[in-house]
Write a structure and sequence with these properties.
Elements: H1 2-5, H2 7-13, H3 17-28, E1 36-37, H4 40-60, E2 67-73, H5 77-93, E3 96-102, H6 108-120, E4 126-129, H7 139-145, H8 157-165, H9 173-184, E5 193-197, H10 204-212, E6 220-224, H11 230-239, E7 242-245, E8 263-266, E9 270-274, E10 279-283, H12 288-291, E11 297-298, H13 305-333, H14 339-356, H15 367-370, H16 372-377
Parallel strand pairs: 1-11, 2-3, 2-4, 5-6, 5-7, 7-8, 8-11
Antiparallel strand pairs: 9-10
Bound molecules: 5,10-Methenyltetrahydrofolate.
Organism: Hypsibius exemplaris
Protein name: methenyltetrahydrofolate cyclohydrolase
GO molecular function: methenyltetrahydrofolate cyclohydrolase activity; methylenetetrahydrofolate dehydrogenase (NAD+) activity; methylenetetrahydrofolate dehydrogenase (NADP+) activity
Length: 378
Amino acid sequence: MFSRSRPLLRLLAEIPADVAVVKRAFHATPSRAKAQLLDGKRISREILTELRSEIDAWHAIGRKKPHLSVVLVGNNPASLSYVGNKLKAAKSAGITSETIRLPESISQSDLLSLLESLNTNRNVDGILVQFPLPPHISERAVCDTVSPQKDVDGFHVESMGHLCQGKEGFYPCTPLGIMELLKRSGVDTFGKNAVVCGRSKNVGMPTAMLMHADGCGDATTTICHRHTPNKQMRAFVGLADILITAVGQPGLITADMVRDGVVVVDVGITRRFDSAKNAFVLKGDVDFEGVSQKASFITPVPGGVGPMTVCMLIKNTFTAARKLRGYKEREAAEESISDYDREIRTTIRLDNAQHQQHRSGIELYDQFDQQPHFVTNT
Ligand SMILES: Nc1nc(=O)c2c([nH]1)NC[C@@H]1CN(c3ccc(C(=O)N[C@@H](CCC(=O)O)C(=O)O)cc3)C=[N+]21
């Protein structure tokens, strides 16, 4: 009687036994496979090794090693740790560096004068002023005093303009690091739903910018921030194929909020005292244990985005050195284009041709002229 009124069931009953077993096994699996790690530590080591060989080759033909000047105001323990990582990475890639340590009480005008002198110092290729700064100093004034040619952080208003316009320039290290991490881990962003939580000028905003940009992430990108109602945020996060959180709030993202197979990039770093371990531990924004049961890829904290930020800084410093010297060579030879520019343009053409294979015919007409440099920097 059942089989007569419900033909579908009769059909199912006819499925060979081995297929039915496979089907049941799939649905009844008690615990899902764990996500694959987006291993920033390993990938950043790979990149630093590549940079090392490029920098060695550059140095071997008589050029000075690239030089990074780091300015550190005060004694913030997190800043000391991050700057330490940056200097270590510089050394491993064959970049020389110096840390200029200044007291918390330094005036803004003294700090700006120091930056002016670094701007004109021919031995300096890249300048980084570690944030946060004490409240009496304007971070914007500091960013805009660093010469755009040496702005390896990508925080100068001119660099930000280039990023927003899709022009060649220095892009901030964390967004670059995220794009590189996804690319090298085989995560395709093209046409996907990306959700960025956090809209800071140095991380959230530029990350969303690269994620959505033509010729770069090409994702449909949503930014959630402090004024996004909780219910809305849940709705957006639930739609994300790629979720990037840069908020600094442990436990913000839990397993019930994300969809199966989501790619999770956790930029949050909060230092918390763990009484069981009797030590400070680093926490991301994501409940790693829970979310990694549903995600296809996930970054650990530490060992995810942090090391990628550091190696992109080294990459930007090498780029700054090549450009600074390139321009000098061009002046000397009165050429209209430096070897470096020529090399970059060739690379863009090749990469862009590959990228365009994804595109539909209508979109093909003017991509090269509009968006070349995203490819260069990712
Ligand atoms: N002008 C400026 N440029 C920056 O790029 C900049 C800044 N100011 N201020 C602070 C943020 C944060 N940031 C990090 C760098 C390295 C790690 C890093 O190496 N993290 C390790 C662990 C670090 C640790 O153990 O303390 C990891 O995640 O595995 C993290 C965060 C750069 N920032």
